[in-house]
Amino acid sequence: MSPIKNVAVIGASGNFGTPITQALQASGFKVTIITRETSTTIHPADISTIRTEYTLEALTKALNNQDAVVCVVGPGGVPLQKTFVDAAEAAGVQRFIIDDFGWGPDARGFPEFDAIHAIRREGWDYAAKKAKDNKNFTWTGLTTGNPIDWAMKKFPLMGFDVSKHEAIIYDQGKERFTGTTLAGIGQAVVGTLQHPEETANRFLKVQSIQTCQTELLDTFEKITGEKWKVTRTISKELIEKGKEENKAAIGGWVLKLAVSHLYDVGQGRGMVAPSREESDAALLGVKEESAEYVVAKLLG
């Protein structure tokens, strides 16, 4: 397989797309941003941007001379993943990084997420079939689990309101989960493209930290030098509320069950891999990060 130099990113302005694009550029890849013709997003001036229709013909032209494509579109773009794959193959792209960046094919999530997962899985399976039929086309899926620094800052329901110094602890706060920071997600993409042979045609398990709520709370209190206001609840109640809201078609169910995925006692749903050694983090160059590092970063 030839070295990968030219990389197109679809979804570069998103929550994960931004750090991925930055990491690729910092690592010396020639990055091109692929975006919709109607998009008004202003991208960095030093990165080539192609605005195009999301049709097979237009995308094939846009992906010409690209060695790899990173697909990191939001939920609205996931159903188009098969078109992205077709265009990449037609353009002679060597590697297609599929839109996972979540819990991967082995996710043990709640059944309420099955329909969402099925749409994503359809694109993954399609890429795998293309690779099976065409030895010059390969794919990789990156299972990064919880995007811990982004998620804790954005969603206090995950347990920590950083601005108010308040915490919600579910059950005993000891259910362990893995996370990957945004920097780790960016490095996972870089590492994949730097090791094309080892990463071809498979899902890779990524983590930069393994922790639990109790450890994080202790760290927040240690670094801030104060006791945080703590509300204690049980994960089963959050699960029940999420399921009820799903049945009533109330949008908040997604966040409630996503948080419950981490803290459902004894289920291990939030573990991408049992340990760092059993993940692909070292292969990809993803640094191991401590609770102290992540918390200090969140506190700014």
From TrEMBL:
**The keyword Oxidoreductase is assigned to this record:** yes
* Keyword Glycoprotein in record: no
Report which superkingdom the organism of origin falls in. Answer: Eukaryota
InterPro entries, alphabetized: NAD(P)-bd_dom_sf, NmrA-like, NmrA/Isoflavone_reductase-like, PCBER-like
Recite the UniProt keywords alphabetically.
NADP, Oxidoreductase
> What GO MF terms are annotated?
oxidoreductase activity
Q: Which residues form the NmrA-like domain?
A: 5-232
Q: What is this protein called?
A: NAD(P)-binding protein
What organism does the record attribute this protein to? Aureobasidium pullulans (Black yeast)
